[in-house]
């Protein structure tokens, strides 16, 4: 009777190999996210996971190519190719991160927003907005705070910003017309007093390195930005939006409906849920 041990041994080695590949491919992006967390234990755990994932993928690659040399079979080369893809997926947050966001109005690019390569532990992560090579302003961000959408008006001198401030969503305008005033608690949008006061207080803390003024939008400006958002196709919206989560090969964006709720003319909350 023929023994099944060689088959069983090969099956166990194959399962172990693919567990190492899949586990390592998961450990690298998860560890990368952990290193971005502002909590010490999360950073250390993320660093450990990232190192283990990188070591595991390197070992899996060496094993696959070693097998390819000794046993030049199609399946072995396929395994090596899959491991290489797993490595690229693991390095995706570094290699394929979305670096720039075109800010368009009426079919033309008014400015370019540049995203940071990664999160700095010092907290000085800036999303810079450039006209040509000149940075006109930047928005502060970290793991939980980042811009979601910037709408440039046709005059190229006003920029409506929708910004995720972790526990709220801010909407404000950076104005370079010279006629705007600093954010003041004046009647207008939004109609809810608490929401308006909160936006008034938080908006200036988000904007950095600018000679423009920071103010709340008027009803007309909110409506114009909302109409433009509604007309964007899914592809156009992704191109013009900032990812809420960016793994390089996989990016997540907030839905159009969520952005539109922030521009509701009757907005009643700092974080609209419905």
Features:
8 helices; 4-stranded antiparallel sheet; alpha+beta; 274 residues; 5-stranded antiparallel sheet; single chain; 46% helix; 2 domains
Q: Could you characterize what this model shows?
A:
The protein is of the alpha+beta class and 274 residues long. The protein folds into two domains: 5-95; 100-262, no CATH class. 46% of the residues lie in helices and 22% in strands. It is built from eight helices and eleven strands. A five-stranded antiparallel β-sheet has the order 1-2-3-4-8. Strands 5-6-7-9 form a four-stranded antiparallel β-sheet. Strands 10-11 form a two-stranded antiparallel ribbon. Helix 1 (5-36) packs antiparallel against helix 2 (40-70) and helix 1 (5-36) packs parallel to helix 3 (74-90). The longest helix is centred in the N-terminal third of the chain and has 32 residues, at 5-36. The radius of gyration is 24 Å and the shape is elongated.
Using only C-alpha atoms, the radius of gyration works out to 24 Å
Instruction: Return the domain count.
Output: 2
Tell me the helix content.
40-55%
Work out the strand percent.
15-25%
* Secondary-structure element series: HHHHEEEEEEEHEEHHEEH
Q: Strands of the biggest beta sheet: in what spatial order?
A: 1-2-3-4-8
Unreliable runs: none
Average of pLDDT:
80
Query: Number of DSSP strands?
Result: 11
């Amino acid at each position: 009777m023929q023994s099944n041990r060689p088959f069983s041994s090969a099956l166990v080695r194959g399962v172990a190999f693919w567990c190492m590949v899949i586990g390592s491919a998961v450990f690298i992006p998860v560890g990368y996210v952990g290193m971005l967390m502002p909590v010490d234990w999360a950073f250390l755990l993320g660093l450990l996971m990232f190192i283990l994932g990188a070591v595991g993928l390197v070992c899996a690659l060496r094993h696959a190519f070693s097998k390819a040399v000794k046993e030049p079979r199609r399946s072995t080369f396929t395994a090596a190719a899959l491991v290489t893809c797993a490595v690229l997926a693991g390095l995706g947050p570094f290699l394929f991160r979305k670096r720039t966001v075109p800010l368009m109005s009426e079919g033309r690019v008014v400015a370019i927003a540049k995203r940071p390569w990664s999160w700095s532990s010092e907290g000085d992560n800036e999303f810079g907005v450039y006209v040509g090579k000149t940075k006109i302003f930047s928005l502060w961000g970290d793991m939980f705070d980042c811009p979601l959408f910037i709408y440039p008006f046709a005059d190229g001198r006003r920029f409506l910003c929708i910004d995720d401030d972790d526990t709220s969503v801010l909407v404000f305008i950076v104005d370079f017309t010279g006629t705007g005033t600093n954010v003041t608690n004046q009647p207008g949008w939004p109609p809810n007093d608490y929401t308006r006061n909160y936006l008034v207080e938080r908006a200036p803390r988000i904007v950095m390195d600018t000679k423009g003024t920071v103010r709340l939008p008027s009803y007309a400006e909110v409506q114009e930005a909302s109409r433009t958002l509604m007309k964007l196709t899914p592809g156009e919206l992704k191109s013009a939006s900032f990812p809420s989560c960016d793994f390089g090969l996989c990016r997540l964006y907030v839905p159009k409906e969520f952005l539109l709720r922030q521009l509701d003319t009757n907005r009643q909350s700092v974080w609209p849920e419905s």
